[in-house]
Amino acid sequence: MHFDTIIRNGTVVTASDTFKSDVGILNGRIAALADGLASANEIIDATGLYVMPGGIDSHVHLDQPSGDGIVMADDFDTGTRSAAIGGNSTVLAFCMQEKGQSLREALKIYHEKAAGKCHVDVAFHLVITDPTPEVLGQELPALVEDGYTSLKVFMTYEGLRLRDDQILATLDTARRTGALVMVHCENEDAIRYLIGRHEEEGKFAPKYHATTRPVAAEREATHRALSLAEIVDVPVVIVHVSNREAMEEIRRARQRGQKIAGETCPQYLMLTADDLDQTELEGAKYVCSPPPRDKASQEACWEGLEQGVFDLFSSDHCPFRYDDAEGKLNEKGKRHFRWIPNGIPGVATRLPILFSEGVMKGRISLNQFVAVTSTNHAKLYGLYPRKGTIAVGADADIALWDPARRVTLTNDLLQHGADYTPYEGLDVQGWPVRLLIRGESIVSGDGLLKQAAGQYLPRSRSHLTTRQQA
Ligand code: URP
Ligand code: ZN
Ligand code: ZN
Ligand code: ZN
């Protein structure tokens, strides 16, 4: 058999197996896994490298508007470039419904933002901010059929949050349609109350972002989200879990028999609230929600990854420029933490950080790495087995990892639109030295080889909401 490309002499790693094999690629797909493949237009020597499915980052914010003229640092061009540099072949971004807007209108806008700009494959989660009977009754069922099979709802953020009855109605629609709902769990009323108290006490520095969003506000909302899902009998994803108590809520809900997926992110392994407590306004760089906690919480999140409480390790990439009047240091944000835009960049650093801190330090296996960074994202969000694995018939989305390569993370390396990385100066071991998407080499060395080759991906339903084995 003659292939377009053969990857030779590498070690293939999937979520379940690690084995020596050549990989034959034909027409953008993996066509053979066998030894001694010989005939191809291009032969890539992967001696000493791991041949892994490209990363799938299912929690990425790109080109979202926010009030106050604050501008997200990445659009679909820079954001997906950075994703590719960091070894990702697919990202799932958010399509934000504005109040009063139909989901179709919102999707039209986000498809236009993405058109012709994506360097990796993309799909959209629908963020429901206005769950009217029309939206839930008419639009959503049709959109799920069209391949928009996941939603996000917020329990926090004024203007975005849903009331419990609205969350129930959205969850119920998800149950009927087979959509999967992601929930951002923080108790908005508690946070508002604490912000008011901080204001009375004259506490305005970035570090107070963390003290106004305590663990109990996340734990309570997590418990409530899980209870609401139980009431209408539907699976949910609890996103960006930052601490042990919220994680234990997931464990308990599973013990009760609920189908839950859990997600954590690099910031909860690598940062703490102390990072927000720095001289001047340096702490603004680390403002995200939920906030980074403490060392014990970091250990808990590691434990959750090791033990499978967390299915997903995502970046929650939500980039703002730091030294910028339209970013973290806007005029109001300098005076009061509540106006600092929430979110940090991380789409390029997610995989190297977990590889280095998790795999190289012996906390998780190579197979767990692949599961939580790629395979589980594909299964949960309706892209499996086309994406998320190395198997005959799958898209040839392949990251070649050099486990010996040592890199010091610097902002320049990441090629995103933000003017900082929270991980500046961090030494990592292991780097994605080459990325193929549907058989095409997209990244080699430190640069993009091919521009805007990404495609939009309509999706099937989640393995969690269908009766298939997850
Ligand atoms: O601070 C964060 N995480 N910003 C992004 C929006 C969200 O809540 O995921
Ligand atoms: Zn969120
Ligand atoms: Zn509880
Ligand atoms: Zn997010």
Automatic annotation (TrEMBL):
The cross-references to CDD domains, in alphabetical order and at most eight, read: D-HYD
Q: What is this protein called?
A: Dihydropyrimidinase
* Keyword Metal-binding carried by entry: yes
Which domain of life, per UniProt? Bacteria
Hydrolase as a keyword?
yes
- Which cofactors does it use? Zn(2+)
What family classification does the UniProt entry report for this protein? Belongs to the metallo-dependent hydrolases superfamily. Hydantoinase/dihydropyrimidinase family.
Q: Where is the Amidohydrolase-related domain?
A: 50-440
| Keywords in alphabetical order | Hydrolase, Metal-binding
Q: Which PANTHER family match?
A: COLLAPSIN RESPONSE MEDIATOR PROTEIN, HYDRANTOINASE/DIHYDROPYRIMIDINASE FAMILY MEMBER
Assigned EC number: 3.5.2.2
What is the enzyme's main class?
A: hydrolase
